[in-house]
Amino acid sequence: MLVLLNWFYRLNLFILRIETKFSMICFNLCTRAHTYVYTYVLRMYYVCIYVHMYNSNIDIDK
User: Global pTM?
Assistant: First the structure.
């Protein structure tokens, strides 16, 4: 009985370790993707603002 409990405990630890590694990998990938998308959206936003200001400056010059 004690051997069975010990084996079960080790199996749970092993599964927990695999889940932790997998979740960390998934978390890293997800945050990297989110950061990439976020910077891309932010960059596009700044480009739109820059183009808009540039166009409005041209209109003022005319």
Answer: 0.42
